[in-house]
Design goal:
Layout lengths: L4 E3 L4 H11 L2 E3 L5 H6 L7 E4 L9 E4 L2 E5 L4 H6 L1 H6 L1 H8 L4 H6 L2 H7 L6 H7 L3 E4 L3 E3 H4 E3 L2 E2 L7 E7 L3 E8 L6 E10 L2 E7 L6 E2 L1 H9 L3 H5 L16 H21 L1
Parallel strand pairs: 1-3, 2-3
Antiparallel strand pairs: 4-5, 5-10, 6-7, 6-10, 8-9, 11-12, 12-13, 13-14
């Protein structure tokens, strides 16, 4: 490792000031950043720890939505009665992230801000039409995820919470890459009052909405409708784990399973 300055503010305002003063990096659960530092892929001079900011934790249920603080751990989301009652697919998603250690350290805000192309949470944010609240503004899901490990966040801007509208029904299913437990392909399907939304993670360089499957499910919200869609390989990833052709096939298959989960639970 190398010399690092560490600051631990107690408020969001103090954290933002520290980030801007030092050009440092925020540290949430550390599941990605610490690993990157160990391999020198990231070498921040200053880390601004967010663990002491109580305002960034907690789950709040309101009429029509669930708001989850950025520093809320995956395990807390998975165990939350409020989440299970309102959006059970989101609780299942959180309970399937990584292993027990990752779930007890990793945070919602850290995952969303990292925009890993195979992370689970971004698909729920996009499919559910969530709003990402930050230290400066509120960003709709459609505008938040820009590219691989890239979001609409500005320098010194922190995710403070994510607000998820409660859907009529939803499902999330992924096929894991067994070594990492990230999604080889994961699909979140949500039926809302304004229509069907389908978001795919793991298949491309950034989470995206599957318009063809949305149209099919809008006409008939059944597993067969999703399964019959032929997904284009355009812009899909091809690597040592899976080809673009295989991922394209998986998208419709996994989407069908997500619809089945949504309609039977």
């Amino acid at each position: 490792m190398y010399d690092i300055e560490f600051e631990e503010p107690s408020t969001v305002e103090q954290a933002v000031q520290a980030l801007r003063r030092t050009s440092g990096r925020p540290l949430a659960g550390g599941q990605t950043l610490v690993a990157a530092m160990k391999t020198r892929l990231a070498q921040p001079g200053t880390l601004v720890g967010l663990g002491g900011i109580s305002a960034l934790r907690g789950i709040r249920r309101a009429s029509g939505s669930i708001t989850i603080g950025a520093m809320t751990r995956h395990a807390e989301v998975a165990a939350s009665l409020e989440v299970w009652q309102s959006i059970p697919a989101l609780a299942r998603l959180a309970g399937g992230i990584g292993d027990r250690q990752v779930r007890n350290m990793g945070t919602l805000g850290g995952s969303v801000a990292n925009s890993d192309p195979a992370a689970c949470y971004p698909s729920a944010v996009l499919a559910l039409g969530a709003t990402v609240h930050t230290s400066e503004r509120s960003i709709p899901a459609e505008s938040f995820f820009v590219g691989m490990y890239t979001t609409a966040l500005r320098d010194g801007e922190l995710v403070t919470a994510v607000e998820f509208p409660v859907p009529l029904r939803a499902g999330y299913v992924k096929l894991e890459q067994l070594a990492s437990r990230f999604a080889l392909v994961g699909v979140c399907v949500a039926q809302t009052v304004s229509g069907v939304r389908v978001a795919v993670t793991g298949a491309a360089s950034v989470v995206y909405r599957a318009a063809d499957i949305e149209q099919a499910l809008q006409a008939s919200f059944t597993p067969d409708s999703a399964r019959r869609v032929v997904v284009s390989t355009k812009d899909l990833s091809s690597d040592l784990h899976a080809s673009a052709d295989y991922r394209a096939h998986l998208v419709s298959v996994i989407a069908a399973r997500a619809v089945e989960q949504a309609t039977t639970n």
